[in-house]
Amino acid sequence: MDEDDYTADCRARLAFEMLANRWDSVVIFTLGAGGPMRPSALVARIGGIKPKVLHDALRRLECNGLVFRREYSEAPPRVDYALTEIGAALLEPMRAMGQWALRYGDAVLEAQERAAGRVTVRS
């Protein structure tokens, strides 16, 4: 891709939007680290996520082809979720973003604090 490929309707933007939701990247990373999991195991492993929020994230990720839902013919019914091939392919760029955050996160937080300290008074 060259710089002209980063336009309002480019495919690269699609990739960034996949991870823009607060929980989607966490769910992808957790499934990548732990393999297929039931929703209750995901809630326990992630921590701080409500079951409904997880449900919404899983549905969104499934709709985008990043996870698949496997149903088992058991009583009571059981399902688990796993990454698809394209979901697993996101792990490498996510790790790269994590490395970027480790390297530059403090600088970003400092810049945000400086910007928050700038209060403009309008008359």
Task: Please provide a written account of the structure.
Keywords: DNA-binding, Transcription, Transcription regulation. This is HxlR family transcriptional regulator. Residues 10-109 form the HTH hxlR-type domain. InterPro entries: HTH_HxlR, WH-like_DNA-bd_sf, WH_DNA-bd_sf. With 123 residues, this protein is mainly α. 59% of the residues lie in helices and 10% in strands. It contains six helices and two strands; from the N terminus they run ααααββαα. A two-stranded antiparallel ribbon has the order 1-2. A hairpin with a 5-residue loop joins β1 (67-72) and β2. It is globular. It starts with 10 loop residues before the first helix and ends in a 6-residue tail after the last helix. The mean pLDDT is 89.
Sum up the structure in keywords.
123 residues; mainly alpha; two-stranded antiparallel sheet; 6 helices; 2 strands; 59% helix; WH-like_DNA-bd_sf
Helix percentage: 55-70%
Strand order of the largest sheet: 1-2
Mean pLDDT: 89
Order of helices and strands: HHHHEEHH
What is the CA-based Rg, rounded? 18 Å
Main β sheet profile: 2 strands, antiparallel
Distance between the termini: 47 Å
Strand content: 5-15%
Strands, count: 2
Principal-axes shape call: globular
The total of helices stands at 6
Uncertain stretches: none
What class do helices, strands and sheet pairing give? mainly alpha
Keywords: DNA-binding, Transcription, Transcription regulation
GO molecular function: DNA binding
Domain HTH hxlR-type: 10-109
InterPro entries: HTH_HxlR, WH-like_DNA-bd_sf, WH_DNA-bd_sf
